[in-house]
Amino acid sequence: MVILAIDTSAGTSVALVAHNGEVLATHDTLDTMRHAEVVGQAIMNVLADAGVSASEVTLVAGGVGPGPFTGLRVGLAAAVAFATARGIDLHPTVSHDAIARGWFEQQGSGDLTIGLRVVTDARRKEVYWSDYAGLTSGIPVRLTGPAVAKPDDLPPPVGEGSLNTVNAAAVSAIQLALVARAEQGSGITRAFQPLYLRSPDVTLSQGPKRVSS
Amino acid sequence: MSTLASALPEVTNRSNPLVLGIESSCDETGVGIVRGQQLLANVISSSMDEHARFGGVVPEVAARAHLEALAPTLAEAVATAGVRLSDIDAVAVACGPGLAGALMVGIGAAKALAVALNKPVYAVNHLVGHVGADVLGPEGPFELPAIALLVSGGHTSLLLVRSMVNDVELLGETIDDAAGEAFDKVARILGLPYPGGPEIDRAAAGGDPAAIRFPRGLTLPKDLAAHRYDFSFSGLKTAVARWVEIRRDAGDEIPVADVAASFREAVVDVLTAKAVAACVDLGVPRLLLGGGVTANQRLRQVAQERARTAGIDLRIPEFSLCTDNGAMIAALGAQLIMSGAKASPLDFGADSTLPATRIFVT
Ligand SMILES: [Zn+2]
Predict the structure, then answer these.
(1) Domain that holds residue A171
(2) Which pTM value belongs to this model?
(3) CATH superfamily of B146-316
(4) Is the Cβ of A53 closer than 8 Å to some Cβ of chain B?
(5) Is A201 within 8 Å of chain B by CB?
(6) Which of A127, B19, B194, B235 has its CA 20 to 30 A from that of A50?
(7) How high is the mean pLDDT in each 10-residue block of chain B (362 residues)?
(8) What sections of chain B are H helices per DSSP?
């Protein structure tokens, strides 16, 4: 029983985690431009490092973001394809939840009640943000978000001890796998929905432009 | 415990490989499955309708649609082919030319599929894939060398194909708009919906193709010297716009059928004249058409007439193999495998301007 987690909402992070929570292997690339190049080798590396064959993977956790669109889709396409190839479930998992879980884990074990804001780069001088109230049964309790905003427009944080903010430049696929494992254990499922949080840049056709004066 | 390699194995079945191909270079998500030269499945999911209100393909809209369509398209192709994914010998994927963000969806999927199945992946050229589609037709592979005219909303290219696995030469291509784009833009000028190709075709019915003499791009002697096999459709589009504006400003009724027929005639004339000239100049009496614009009835008709007159064998695959599709990518992958080509290294990315001469990534 092994979870393969793939997240490309920041860099490319891939991990293999056993269903008992034991981390078997992880492979991280911080480069935020080369997801398509590295994702295949990253999956191969974690399988090889862990000595696990693809047929032993029983669940895929795919990071649904939020994150810059082009890169985000590479990991999700890989997650969809791997799950399809092996005939196993894909558990769409919020990338900010993985960041939050990693932070809570550093604060202590078991359930926690601590306010936390997770902030990641959304490019175009904006940030993606989510607010959490703590950790319950290994699952970060998200109160607000993920959403996108200009840093100056962020509302005051809510929750307890609300001064905690983590500005993350990376997402750990290990934590993503652990969130997915906890959510599966609690019967939580989520629709496959990439968190783009922005509409595509398009201009509606105004009819053809004049060419003669 | 099994031994685990750090690289994917090469194909062992070189005579009749079962190949799954993924295409996502523009607005069609295609998954095709072939066994050697036999077509088993060709499933296409198009996001064309989502682009209609924008009057052209919006890259981000196309890329989002690819990811949404991926799982159902894969599942339908496997079901149609009646195979198990574990039986696949190799995965092939288009890695360019095309829209980078769209291509990356197919690439991410192809790599994970390959690793999950422990099978190799071939990163192939989308344009040469259009040539590869031909081997799947009922008439069998076209004799080579051949000239290939590949026309769609994303590309307009003229190739000399001596071998689709190791010898493709780019003779010419559009220096501005693709032919399909010109159809879309002129449709807008005439107030017709997107996509323009079928709309112009419909509007042109009953129109006089000789009513208005629109310019033929890059056909004057001075242009031919430098651009013998290149195309240009931007000036034509502007000429149509100007012609229409002058009449509209004067309060005249626009003879839509005549404008559509005359515009279409200009496009078809240039495409077929240059393709036939390449056949004649190079002594290659075989012409292969590919790409979505081959659906155009007038293009087929004129190509047939001119090929017959010049003693050229003309090949037009059936439409589902002409438009962007995964079967053509799988077919090219199978040809490469049967020729003994090694799989692509796993670190390839999308190359939006991949030249036609790079048939696959080595
Ligand atoms: Zn094409």
Answers:
(1) 2-185
(2) 0.96
(3) ATPase, nucleotide binding domain (3.30.420.40)
(4) yes
(5) yes
(6) B19
(7) 67 97 97 98 94 90 97 98 97 98 98 98 98 93 96 96 98 96 95 94 96 95 93 97 96 96 98 98 98 93 98 95 97 98 98 97 97
(8) 48-51, 59-81, 100-117, 126-132, 179-189, 196-204, 221-227, 234-249, 256-282, 297-310, 319-322, 326-338
